[in-house]
Amino acid sequence: GGGGGHRREFAIGGGGGGSGSHFLPSFMDSSNLGGGASGGGGTRGGPLGGRGMSARASGSGPPVRGGDRRGGGSGGPKGNAMVFNIEATSVKPLDNSTTRWVPQSKRDKAAVPEDVRVTEEVIRNFQGILNKLTPENAAKLTQEVDRLSIDNEERLTRIIRLIFDKAVCETVFVVVYANLCRHMLQIKVPVDNPKEDEKKEVSFRKKLLTLCQTLFEADNKDYQTMYSEYTTLMAQVAENERKSDEDRDTTLNVKVANLGEQLLKAKIRTIGNIKFIGELYKLRILTEPIMHECIVKLLTKYDNDTLECLCNLLQSVGKELDHEKAKKRMNEYINRIKEIISSPQKMGFEKKPLETRVRFMLEELVHRRACGWAPRNEVERPKRISEVHADTRRQLQRQAEANPAVLGGWRASNGYYIN
């Protein structure tokens, strides 16, 4: 072809006697789908009736004879062949937007203010530390945290938010993140644009407590709002099902699915927040009056999700709160829980019944308190590599004792010798 463009013809033709290339994938090839014996007409079989496929490129030599040699039949795009002409014209290059994403290594450092660049570097390094943080390397990574320039309020606020988001979403590692907070308690930074009656410095502890309280109330409010919308949508779906196919709104199910996914994420964050608060109290970052205030708020809202948060909180900190001075308050909490279990309708569960799962959680809580807060099952927590190896050896030891003839004291697949 001429004029700067390149023209290419693709043809799907009858037969396949040639030996040239064809453009059908193997699963559509007639020879692989039983289409046409050797030497026979390739008119049966695959999705395209066993027809071969050929291509001609202008300026690239003679036409390529069609199809697969195994398919049989006549070659070339003749007879009932379908020919497609594709003209490859010049394409205008994309315009570079001023807001496009640019890799860090290619950004113009001179165009970014120095304080902004340093702030982004600190946040990026701290995010990398959080991603690698485990009980095994916590001591080493906390030393890297000490070397970061956390010296203004913006950096401190963003770092606390990173820790909080990690802790509420990865509840298995909540102990690790709480210990990191304890290590950073001594950090103090100047307040940005302080007022006359405000302090000139703000501490990590104060920022952390404020953020926990603010996000706990915000997440709970957002969850209640979404749950009301979800209940309304479910009523509309039930009414929609009674309509005919022509009058039925097909978008309602999609809305319910999307809102249900948002509800699940909000619930995970709320429960994660509760567990994080409990771990902060056990490290004495939060005070006991704050914990009692949280328990009272959760115990006076009679809905299933709030009671589930209450169970998670008391399972975490119940043993620490149940000391001699606070025994009377703990007795009041347990008695109120027993009333909810025995008479949920009288306690505010007229419209929505108390879920069986939540009732079992409340009964388990009462049982644990009676047994001195001893957990029935092992509490899920992050483990060191040495602990994982020890658990594996114990498991293999139990297997060897149960069936010594099969194992014989050696587990080759795991590489452990049981002696």
Low-confidence stretches: 14-21, 33-78, 409-419
Order of helices and strands: EEEHHHHEEHHHHHHHHEE
What portion of the residues fall into strands of 2 or more residues? 5-15%
**What is the count of β-strands?**
7
How can the largest sheet be summarized?
A: 3 strands, antiparallel
Helix fraction bin? 40-55%
Distance between the termini: 79 Å
The spatial strand order of the largest sheet comes to 2-1-3
**Rg (CA only):** 34 Å
What coarse outline follows from CA principal-axis ratios? Answer: globular
Overall pLDDT: 77
The secondary-structure class comes to: mainly alpha
Number of separate helices: 12
Secondary structure elements and pairings:
Elements: E1 6-13, E2 52-57, E3 82-88, H1 114-132, H2 138-146, H3 153-169, H4 174-183, E4 188-190, E5 201-203, H5 204-241, H6 252-282, H7 288-299, H8 304-321, H9 327-342, H10 356-370, H11 385-402, H12 404-407, E6 410-411, E7 416-417
Antiparallel strand pairs: 1-2, 1-3, 4-5, 6-7
Helix pairs in contact: 1-3, 3-4, 3-5, 3-6, 4-6, 5-6, 6-8, 7-8, 8-10, 9-10
